[in-house]
Amino acid sequence: MPHIAILSSSIRIGRNSNRLALYFKNFLEENKLATVEILDLEEYNFPLFTERLRLQTSPSSATLDFANKIKLADGIIIVTPEYNGGYPASLKNAIDLLYDEWYRKPVSIATVSSGPFGGSQVIMQLQFTLWKMRAWTAPSTFPAPKVEEAFDEKGNATSKESTDKRAASFINELLWCIEAKQKMILK
Fold this sequence. Notes:
By secondary structure, the chain is of the alpha/beta class. It has helices spanning about 15-30, 40-45, 60-70, 90-95, 125-130, 145-150, 160-185, and strands at about 5-10, 35-40, 75-80, 105-110, 135-145. It starts with a strand and ends with a helix.
C-alpha cells in the first residue's frame, strides 16, 4: 500500500484549506487506498529559511523530520489556498528548502478559495515551481471553491457523494503516477 503525505500549507489564523487536507486523509483511509499523514506547516512553524537544507550547517530536528517525510512518501498531495492569485509564502519556503527530495516525486495539487474559482489561478504557478524542482505533477487537480461551505472543520464534505466522486478521479491519477514510478524503479 502506498504512503501519501498531505502537505497542508496555510499557516494563517482561521485557515480553511486544512479542511480539505483532513477530507483527503479521511477519504484515503476510509477507502483503504494508502497510508496517510498530514504534514501541517502550521505545526512545523518553520522560520524563513536562508539556505536550502543540504547547505545548512545545523538544521533543526523539525526541518530534518519534514525532509525525511517528503523523501519517504510515495506521493504528495499539496493542499493550498490561493492568496491574491498566488500560493502562500509558507509553502514556497517549504518547497525551496528541499531539492533532491522532490526528484520525480509524484505530486497532486488541491487548491481552495472562499470564492467561486477554488484557487484555480494558483495551479499553474505551483506546477511550474514543482517542475523546476523536478517533481512529477499529476495532471489531475482538485480546486475547491467556497471551501468553508463545502467542508466542515473536521474535513467532512457537505456534498459527500459528488465530492467523493471528484476525489476518486483526483486520487486515482496520483496512485497511477505512484505505481508507474515504482514500475520504473524496478526495471
